[in-house]
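== Folding the chain ==

***
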Amino acid sequence: MKNSIKISLVSLCIGLGVSSCQSDLTSLNDDPKHPSILPSENLLATALYQSSYYMDNPSVNFNNYRFFTQQMSETQYPDETQYNLVTRNQPRNHFNRMYVYSLNNIKQAKTNLKSEVEADENVRNNKLATLEIEEIFIWENLVDTYGDIPYYDTFKPDENLTPKYDDAKTIYLDLIKRIDLAVAQIKSGVNGYAPVSGNYSGDLVYSGNMTKWKKFANSIKLRLGMNLADVDPSLSKTTVEAAVAAGVISSDAEAYKFNYDGNTFSNPVFDNLVASGRNDFLPSALTINTMTSLSDPRLDVWFTKVSGVYKGGVFGEINDPYTGFSQLGSYFRSATAPSNLLSYAEVAFLKAEAAARGYSVGDTAQNLYNAAVTESMRENGVSAANTTVYLATNPYNAANWKQSIGVQAWIAMFNKGFASWNFTRRLDYPVLVNPPKSNLSSVPYRMPYSDQEYVLNGDNVKAAGDKIGGDKATTKLFWDKF
């Protein structure tokens, strides 16, 4: 009997990403000396950390975005670069981190916020808008990682423990609508989750600055709109133009970054490359060779040399010894480096692509391309003089703008795996070749569904897989048309 109770609780808590089990379990752990309801800012802080850390995590046990874009290779254990997504259960691990540890905390924060004392209702509304925008950001990651996902029926444990999978484009449309409503709710000149008298704030990204949250929300809308470009050009154009007109991220100071203190929180790349002592990650030969052919000055910032030259690891193969190849340099090995999950450089490249597609976003594709490359160089400590030389050597090519923007965005998004994956899937540059020992018939276009879903939500996940053309990593998302 005890085992059956345990299984039902696990199903409720983590199987499908539904609401937390506090109402079922807290009576067993009541402590009259401490509050029984967590403040919403604590829940927000947890969600921000969990979502940021695991979207940016290079671990072989999680999202594997950096391997999907072939920017990094492995040294001794090439399973992940051979696209083995079964042994380590990456689909399950990422699914649970986003639903249970991230979305669930935001949902609970919204509930708890309603009962919190707040002198200014405008502040409460800004806090609610903050929670809503962060929730949308996490949903965007899920729908662009898996495709159709449980959405409308989730977090309703009293109504439904087996939520259906909703159509990805329908989710897109709802997310765009929710962004507009959240932005409209923001009261200018009033903070959200801001520090009070220098004390802790649950907003570990923007410290309650609602102008930055608004620009971040519009930048998510820009990214959603660009992904629609090949499947719904008209909607893409209106969505992108509206986002840019409303104001998107326009400087590095406005980028969505989760900052780590190096003590309580450490950067996930540091944790996996330095703290773990695991010498198993290299820049790939594709990365090194592409950047070398373009005389890219970021090579000197990012990587070490071997016998005076840069040498990348062969993707999908055992690369021994580790010391025989270029390695990620100190630039990526800091415990306090932020997770820059929606950077100004990414927004600039999105605008350049929009202009190349004929959208009205305030400037020409060439000027926006130059601005995007320039921002990436600045972000990585490259001098203005070297940037000028690079742009002169690698100018915008209007005749083949997908390649021109695609390759440069792919380079600029190095170590920003999710952003890079969006560019490579949408623009198909650089051309990614399936490694000879791959477990798949092509490079991955999506993450398969969690294996736990087939146990706990079998009928719905099977129906979802059939609808999208098969629950395979090689099945393209609805917007990935070419």
Q: What stands out?
A: Strands lie at 72-74, 149-150, 165-166, 256-258, 281-283, 339-342.
